[in-house]
Specification:
By secondary structure, this protein is of the alpha+beta class. It is built from 2 helices and 4 strands, in the order βαββαβ. A 4-stranded antiparallel beta sheet has the order 2-3-1-4, with helices on one face.
Length: 96
């Protein structure tokens, strides 16, 4: 199992319950493909460096998880088409 981090920027124009549902859906995808969520950091609403889909702000979430090597590609495929996700990035964390 490798350690990964999923960074999500979620639309600031949706309600708190909907935002929580988006994060829960992403966590569900991680678990569906054999991963284990270890930590979820919520950074809150931040101003974006540039507008994305005409939105100047977004909510930042960082989800740390352990998963097999093929899981990130599958998770990425699912997250890419999720509503209200402005940007995302999955990176492998080094074992330092």
């Amino acid at each position: 199992m490798n350690k990964y981090e999923l960074a999500l920027i979620v639309s600031a124009k949706i309600e708190d319950d909907d935002r929580t549902a988006v994060v829960d859906t992403a966590k569900g995808y991680i678990e569906r493909f054999g991963g284990t969520v270890t930590e979820v950091e919520e950074w809150g609403k931040k101003k974006l460096a540039y507008e994305i889909q005409k939105m100047p702000e977004g909510f930042y979430y960082f989800i740390q998880f352990d998963a097999p090597g093929e899981a990130p590609a599958e998770i990425e495929r699912r997250v890419r088409i999720m509503d209200h996700v402005l940007r995302f990035l999955i990176v492998r964390k080094d074992e330092a």
